[in-house]
Amino acid sequence: MKVVCKCGFVMSDSGSPNDMEHLLISDRQVEVLQDLVDSEVAADGEVQMWPEHWEESGATEILKCEQCGRLHVIGSDGRVSHVYIRDPDTEP
């Protein structure tokens, strides 16, 4: 996926691992992820399906612009659904 940030920076998740792509997961989703991993380990003795487990747990993909720090939330359709920018009053 390629996303162009409002600041003009081009982000791509084609190289993996990378420092732009993040996964947001709730505490409840962590439990789902752990159950999926535990089930696979119990059945196969190892985990081979990490990408699938992240998707099944409901993790939300986020791309963080390396230039301005905007967070681009990727929706279930694979497109940017929301963009967040840091509140200037909270900057260090």
Defining traits:
92 residues, alpha+beta, four-stranded antiparallel beta sheet, 2 helices, 28% helix, elongated
Quick synopsis:
28% of the residues lie in helices and 26% in strands. By secondary structure, it is α+β, with helices and mostly antiparallel strands.
Protein described:
- With about 90 residues, the chain is an alpha+beta fold.
- The chain has one domain (about 1-10, about 20-90).
- The chain is built from 2 helices and 6 strands.
- The chain has helices at about 25-45, 50-55, and strands at about 1-5, 10, 20-25, 60-65, 70-75, 80-85.
- The strands form 2 sheets. It has a 4-stranded antiparallel beta sheet with strand order 3-4-5-6, with no helix packed on it. A two-stranded antiparallel ribbon has the order 1-2.
- A hairpin with a 5-residue loop joins strand 5 (about 70-75) and strand 6 (about 80-85).
- Helix 1 (about 25-45) runs antiparallel to helix 2.
- The chain is elongated, with a radius of gyration of 16 Å.
- The two termini are about 30 Å apart.
- The mean pLDDT is about 85.
User: Helices and strands, in N-to-C order?
Assistant: EEEHHEEE
Read across the widest sheet, the strand sequence of neighbours is: 3-4-5-6
What composes the largest sheet? 4 strands, antiparallel
Give the number of helices: 2
Report the end-to-end length measured between terminal Cα atoms: 31 Å
How many structural domains are formed by the residues?
1
Strand content: 25-35%
Contiguous uncertain segments of 5+ residues: none
Tell me, rounded to a whole number, the average pLDDT: 86
Looking at the chains present, what oligomeric state does this protein adopt?
Answer: single chain
Molecular shape = elongated
Judged by helices, strands and strand pairing, the structural class is alpha+beta
| Percentage of residues in helical conformation | 25-40%
Query: What is the C-alpha radius of gyration, as a whole number of Å?
Result: 16 Å
Number of strands: 6
